[in-house]
Design goal:
33% of the residues lie in helices and 25% in strands. By secondary structure, it is an alpha/beta fold.
Length: 398
């Protein structure tokens, strides 16, 4: 048995405890959460940490297979410039060994406190890492096709990829997911919706102003890119509606749905989503949003609407690190009024619930969520600082 104490313990499922103590058994399970002085533990048996202790993080949106692209794409070019740069790199010789990059960056993510990840995959490149990693993963086998004639091909490729991940001995949770609102035809959306499974889907949503322009007018950079990659394809017939409103008829409304980025989402987007999707969560990847579009979502708007919020890192093609703490630090720097307790809930328990990782997300008796030590906290305001750091000190298990 280990007894861990810190300036603050954040169980997440209950209020923070100043100078609290977490009792952890040899298997990493939480045995108890104690107020200071609540139990007669000899002082020499208590391990003291400055800063705070909290459950392990859940990275709800990652593209681990793109770890080879770290530092190769210029920031601030907008989504269209980013995607064109990424596509050009993919069609050349990769500058580093992909498997080695996955191993290096995935391990760094784990050591920083991430114990579970919702990971987008377009290939089998991450399979070896996932089968051996102490982290838990749900893999989203991502599909896209702007040409209706390619819907079945894309669907078959996606289902085969999902099945290959489900065949793993470990981390075999996987589902077929559409890439975005605009890169999937209604035919392909319908095929995905017809899958008889309860696993979640993840959709890139309102990541660029061009997305709404595309659906409302059929014009803009998305329309241009669509025809560039599909010469001869008939121009898109605009719906005149919001992106999500345009695809909603083709979604399974009872399925867990994660809307990712939401950088340019408005009150109208939020209202429609909440009214039409019954198991909905919203994921923010603020550092990627700044990297690509130099803009952040209006996060207070989502708080006001009582949205279920998760945090992600996106990929190293659009971020400098795969650290959930760094995402929280960015949010804290731009929205100082958001309490640390609330952000930590987004980073831990909300993600664990969405992915069904029942043993993770909160420091509660019987759970094995992993424990993260966050250092360099502003103790007076209980806020993160630019030099705050995180490290995993107790592994998680499911």
């Amino acid at each position: 048995m280990r007894f861990l104490s810190a300036g603050y313990i954040f169980p997440i499922s209950s209020p923070a405890i100043a100078n609290g103590i977490v009792a952890v058994d040899d298997a990493g399970r939480i045995a108890d959460i104690l107020e200071p002085g609540e139990a007669s533990i000899p002082e020499g048996e208590i391990e003291h940490f400055d800063g705070i202790l909290c459950p392990g993080f859940v990275n709800a949106h990652c593209h681990l297979e793109l770890s080879w692209a770290k530092g190769l794409i210029e920031s601030g070019t907008g989504l269209d410039g980013f995607l064109r740069s990424l596509d050009n790199l993919r069609h050349g010789k990769l500058p580093v060994n992909q498997e080695e990059a996955i191993q290096k960056e995935g391990t760094a993510m784990y050591l920083s406190g991430v114990v579970a990840t919702g990971d987008i995959s377009n290939s089998t490149a991450t399979q070896q890492f996932k089968e051996l990693s102490p982290m838990l993963f749900h893999t989203f086998a991502e599909v896209f096709a702007s040409d209706p004639a390619r819907a079945s091909i894309a669907y078959e490729k996606g289902t085969a990829l999902a099945e290959s991940f489900r065949a793993l001995k470990r981390n075999n949770s996987a589902s077929v997911t559409p890439h975005s609102t605009y890169s999937v035809t209604k035919q392909l959306f319908k095929l995905i919706a017809a899958l008889q499974e309860n696993s979640p889907i993840s959709i890139h949503h309102q990541e660029t102003p061009a997305e709404e322009l595309f659906f409302k007018t059929g014009k803009g950079s998305i329309a241009d890119r669509r025809l560039f990659y599909n010469p001869g394809l008939e121009p898109y017939k605009p719906t005149g509606k919001l992106p999500l409103e345009s695809i909603a008829p083709y979604l399974n409304k009872n399925r867990k749905t994660l809307l990712v980025h939401n950088t340019f989402a408005t009150s109208a987007d939020i209202r429609f989503a909440l009214q039409n999707l019954r198991q909905l969560a919203w994921c923010f990847c603020p550092n990627a949003n700044l990297y690509i579009e130099s803009c952040l979502p209006e996060i207070p708007l989502f708080i006001e609407n009582e949205c279920d919020i998760l945090l992600g890192t996106d990929s190293l093609a659009s971020n400098h690190q795969l650290s959930v703490l760094e995402e929280m630090k960015t949010i804290s720097a731009h929205f100082r009024h958001i309490p640390l307790q609330e952000m930590l809930g987004w980073a831990t328990l909300n993600g664990a619930r969405f992915f069904g990782f029942d043993s993770l997300g909160s420091l509660q008796k019987g759970k094995s969520p992993g424990i993260v030590h966050i250092q360099n906290i502003d103790n007076e305001s209980l806020q993160l600082k630019p030099d705050s750091t995180s490290r995993l000190i107790i592994p998680a298990s499911q």
